[in-house]
Amino acid sequence: MTQAKVIESVLNIFGEFSGHQISRHKTCIYFSPNTNASLQLSISNYLGYQHVTCLGKYLGVPVLHRRSLRTDYNFILEKLRDRLNGWASTMTEHLKHKLFTGASLGLSATIVTSRHLLANQYNSLQ
Q1: Fewer beta carbons below 10 Å: N end or C end of the chain?
Q2: Is 36 helix (H, G, I), strand (E, B) or coil?
Q3: Is 22:47 a contact under the CB 8 Å cutoff?
Q4: DSSP helix/strand/coil, 115
């Protein structure tokens, strides 16, 4: 409990000097799995913070409490894939429009080649 008192003291000093206050309702506390459950409960109650087992995401990236795995970041590749697919379909529609409106075949071949190169770059990322 001594450490909880030190934490509370530091946060109070921070509040005095910065003019900010820590919201007890919005603040969560994470404990190592090695911490005794009764100690976790007493510290959480003393500080008035909610005890959590996972901190979730910060700026869209998961806050991990273990060794990171490749699958932890699959959502980034999926988002990139969705954006590239959207861009490719937009370019395809643009290409169709140019072909039907009489654009030169040289420009169309360049757009098709660019799309092919982009797809190859994306596949090499995986």
Answers
A1: C
A2: coil
A3: no
A4: helix
Q: Are strands 57-58 and 50-52 parallel, antiparallel or unpaired?
A: unpaired
Whether the CB-CB separation of 119 and 88 falls below 8 Å is answered with yes
Q: Quick one: which H or E segment has residue 50?
A: strand 50-52
CB within 8 Å of 46: residues ≥ 6 apart = 1, 4, 5, 8
111 near 94, Cβ under 8 Å? yes
In the chain, domain spans: 2-53, 71-125
Average of per-residue pLDDT across 53-77: 75
What is the enclosing helix (H) or strand (E) of 32? none
pTM greater than 0.70:
no
